[in-house]
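Request: How about a record?
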Amino acid sequence: MNRRQILFIGCLLTSLLNFAQNDIFNIARSGSVADVQTLMKIDSDTINAVNDKGFTALTLACYHENEAVALYLLNHVNNVNGVSKYGTPLMAAVFKEQVVLTKALLEKGANPNIADVNKTTPLHYAVLLKNKTLIELLLDANVDRTLRDSRDKTALDYALMDDNKAIIELLKK
């Protein structure tokens, strides 16, 4: 090989690696598992990248309800919690009322007590959304019911404000 060929191949590989780092976030939003696997052949660690807003691909897949990609990433990422100021993958799954993703994340060890920048936890969101299934999943995962958000409210406080007897009963068990 001559220098030009080596230089060309080097530039091509660099471009592909940059593409992989930047494009994993778009794929997380609306791509397929095959797309993720293609990027992982170029750079297996691309799925652990964090974008400029602090999001991981797993968090974005959960927020964009890309269940197949989220489930794939969940089984391959280094950190299922992927903390950003906008929350975690678990928070995203709860916020989007994705029961399958919430359950899978909890089974993989996602921490249900990590709060976002407003100190809001997945349990707060589940209560505000009045989603008993998600509340039950979080309670089964030993979520801390005493955590307070930036308004100094617990999840139970929100249930009491809404006078949602079924949810109040769940939270008081």
In short: The chain has two domains: 1-91, 112-173. Residues 3-30 form the longest helix (28 residues).
